[in-house]
Amino acid sequence: MSSIFTRIIAGEIPCHRVWEDADHLAFLDIRPVRPGHVLVIPKREVSYLFDLEPAAQSALWESVRLVEAKLRAATGCARVVVSVVGWEVPHVHVHLVPTDDIGDFPFPGPCGLSPDELPEIAARIAAAQP
Q1: 8 Å CB contact between 75 and 46
Q2: What is the mean pLDDT of each run of 10 residues along the chain (130 residues)?
Q3: Among 17, 50, 59, 70, which lies 20 to 30 A Cα-Cα from 130?
Q4: Domain residues of the chain, as ranges?
Q5: DSSP letter string, 96-120
Q6: Does residue 93 carry a catalytic annotation?
Q7: Marked catalytic residue, from 24, 37, 91, 93
Q8: Rounded distance, CA 103 to CA 80, Å?
């Protein structure tokens, strides 16, 4: 089954488009964190960001850079927060949220690790072989 984003790309579901090219689409999030909250997606449906081929991933980030500049110019915000969560919709998407203060974007709090646990986690990551 196609993701909701693939259906938006196909025109089956309306959206408020802010930019697109042959391979990417940017549109307003329907549940914005802040006014101007935009999603940038590749038109080819891929579920996980790191499953994109390197060239496709680079092209996506170039699109994100372009849309970020448009968003900052349009809103006059101080910074645009970038978030890639990847669980809500099985189609790669980058959230761009205009902000003027750190409090404008809800960020999860710490998970409760003690400083004593950090060396073991760091060693495990450093030693991992993908």
Answers
A1: no
A2: 93 97 98 96 97 98 98 98 93 97 86 91 94
A3: 59
A4: 4-127
A5: EEEESSGGGS---------GGGHHH
A6: yes
A7: 93
A8: 13
